[in-house]
Amino acid sequence: MKDRLLIALFLLLPALQIQADKIDQPTEVLVLGTIHSSHAKNPNYSYENVIHILDAYQPEAVCVEIRPRDFRKNPSLREMELASIYGLANNIPVYPIDWWRGNARHERREYVKTDEYLQKKAQAEQLRKESRIIQHFEQANGSWHHFRYKKGYRWWNGKEYNDYHTQGYRISMEVYGDHCMNLYYRTRNDSMMALIDEAIASHRGERIVVVTGAEHKHYFDRALDERDHIETVNLNSLTIEEKPVQKEAIKKYLAGRDPSIYLLDATPEKKYRWIRSAGFTPLLHGPDMDFHPYSIPQENIEKASRLLERLEEEYGRLPDFVFEKGWVDFLKGHYDRSIAWMKLVVKDSANVSQEMKYFLIPSAIRTQAYCHDLKGNRRKALELYNQAKTTALRYGDLPEWKRNVLYDRWMEKPYTHEKE
Known about the structure:
Layout: H1 2-24, E1 27-34, H2 47-57, E2 61-64, H3 78-89, E3 94-96, H4 104-111, H5 115-130, H6 132-141, H7 144-147, H8 153-156, H9 159-176, H10 185-201, E4 207-213, H11 214-225, E5 230-232, H12 248-256, H13 268-278, H14 280-284, H15 298-315, H16 319-332, H17 335-347, H18 354-374, H19 378-395, H20 400-412
Parallel strand pairs: 1-4, 1-5, 2-3, 2-4
Helix pairs in contact: 2-3, 3-12, 5-9, 9-11, 15-16, 16-17, 16-18, 17-18, 18-19, 19-20
């Protein structure tokens, strides 16, 4: 027995020595600033680039801007889900580090209606005009709308962008304090740093990446620089190769936001909900698209058709998926086929999730009405518009403007699928 213990101890010594050596080394932390939904349209900082950076850094722990309560349970920012999947696929620990205070955005919407806000806004704008850093940045780069889809990942993680936000938040704190107007800047960032510190404590002497919105980077870099035994890593020190993704789970996620490895309970319904929000929703149900179907670009319809084909085998029987098939057929002018799909959705309403029922069932009925109008069957169309409106009212509140846009105006005149 004693000999076995000695042998086990002898075998453990190298691993213990490696661990001891790590603890004596500084912990390296790369704060990777991301651009949230802008990754989707920025060829110089795409979702794939996030993976290229992680591959170059080879982290031993990954922190992501997701609240602990939502982690692996609810949809989050896409690049945060992607970074989590990177960690899970490579057996690297992943730590959720986001924190919110109540509903700060709702508070902000109410606050901007006040006279106090107008006074403070004028004060903040004057201070921004007096800031050489802010004025130089905006003269060189334009507004956020000018550079959001153009700048590369080194720029978003560089000194110029960091200094710009450092100055902007300094002014915001001076004018408003720790307030809903800056989403409780100090409280939120300090709360996130506390969670980052917990991850660091578990990985002393190792390489950690903190994947977070670029507006947080200046705060975290400064806080980490003040800590002992922490070495912040500059993105410019990494050699980043833009090579094909190898891990199957990451490839599937990039292709269609497949969350299989990320979700703790990856039922087909849950998986499809995530895929729908990333795929079909922006293509076919973006701003005003459900109110004005004729506004949907042909390019979007073709992309959605290809996505339907790819997902048919796995999700073809789900009512949500059947609805998208009917919606695409309607947009393509296949009215009889669209009617048939939408009838199946209504018939299978018991299997539609409660959170989707208020949208899916009235929309399926209304789409049939559109099709009958376009086929010249006005009487049937009117019957279905009435049925759709009654169903929508049964499932929840229906504001007057929405009732008019979705139903009443088409009861006054036939739907033509042409811009009004």
